[in-house]
Amino acid sequence: MILDGAVLGNEIKKEVQKEVEHLKSKGIIPALRCLVSSDDKSTRVYLNSIKRNCDKLGINYAEVETDSKNIIKDVKTLNEDDKVHGVMLMHPVPKGVDEISVLSTLDPKKDVEGRTPENLGKILLNAPFFVPCTAQAVVELLEYHNVPLKGANVTIVGRSTTVGKPLSLLLMSRNATVTVCHSKTQNLIEKTKHADVLVVAIGKPKMFDEKWVKKGAVVIDVGINVVNGKVIGDVDFDSVSKKASVSKVPGGVGSITNAVLMRNIVRSARGI
Ligand code: NDP
Predict the structure, then answer these.
(1) Whole-angstrom distance, CA of residue 250 vs CA of residue 4
(2) How far apart are CA 10 and CA 59, in angstroms?
(3) Whose CA is nearest to atom 35 of ligand 1?
(4) How many Cβ atoms sit within 10 Å of the Cβ of residue 29?
């Protein structure tokens, strides 16, 4: 089976569009502001895709240029602006700026990416508010396809704050038994080939072929790698899809991640 993310992503976006229309009828225009402090190429690609999604759904989008001197002040200004509902702090932050201090300044209710210490802490307390969109996307993809999680052995490869760590908590709270692996994990294949559900998020093109995967497992490929101008995942799809259910790249987790971000902006505009 292929775990399609595009269908779910489109369903979420349709709901978002309806909600935007409803909010607009009440005089509220959902608005996102992106704090930008560099001309990094991949950040620009990401910003353009966010803008495209906002434009399509009727969400007001603008960038706020900032620098090391003004970044905290700019975050405070956006916190206080009632017409702004979501704020994203783009990577990389200016040299010499402590990212955690900036994120700690951001109002958790406008933290639509789920990156502030408060929102991350709430996941730990099993009371999630805004959750990192990719981790949320993986959970929704699994639930959409009715993948049993209770008691399942789940292996996650990758322990970043945006994917692996929050995802491990979200799946634990759904009663999965979770193993989290990373670059220092010994004998990685022993951890992946017995998993009922395998989530890979490391950024190594096609690293996981069928020998890493149990027959009948569910494999979620979070990886996004650009090779010769083509976007491919961390999973060797042709090899793994012969023995397991697997999500596509593109058209898998990434399609849902964007939709979740848009939904968070609208939820913030609605007052959750
Ligand atoms: P990070 O670089 O922050 O984290 C990568 C993780 O992978 C780290 O925990 C690292 O271990 C681990 N790792 C790296 N190499 C290996 C290896 N050979 N074996 C085992 N573990 C390894 O990346 P992100 O979490 O931000 O992103 C991961 C991938 O997901 C990327 O391809 C990225 O483009 C993609 N992505 C996709 C999104 C989507 O919506 N589909 C959104 C966000 C990211 P250690 O901690 O020890 O360094």
Answers:
(1) 10
(2) 16
(3) 223
(4) 13
Ligand 1 pocket mutation pick from 99, 186, 199, 202 by most atoms within 8 angstroms of CB: 202
Helix (H) or strand (E) holding 135, with range, is: helix 133-144
Residue pair 216/243 in contact (Cβ under 8 Å)? The answer is: yes
Question: In which residue ranges of the chain is pLDDT below 70?
Answer: none
Atom of ligand 1 nearest to the CA of 184: 47
Q: Which domains does the chain have, with CATH numbers?
A: 28-110 (3.40.50.10860), 133-255 (3.40.50.720)
Q: Is 36 in contact with 65 (CB distance < 8 Å)?
A: yes
Ligand 1 binding site (Cβ under 6 Å of any ligand atom): 134, 157-160, 162-164, 181-185, 188, 201-204, 222-225, 253-254, 257
DSSP string for residues in 165-199: HHHHHHHHTTT-EEEEE-TT-SSHHHHHTT-SEEE
**pLDDT tens readout for residues 217-272:** 999 999 999 999 899 999 999 999 999 999 999 999 999 999 999 999 999 999 98
Phi-psi region at 97: left, alpha or beta (left = phi > 0; alpha = psi -120 to 50): beta
CA distance 183 to 90: 26
Question: Between β-strands 230-232 and 225-227, what pairing exists: parallel, antiparallel or unpaired?
Answer: antiparallel
Amino acid 169: pLDDT: 98
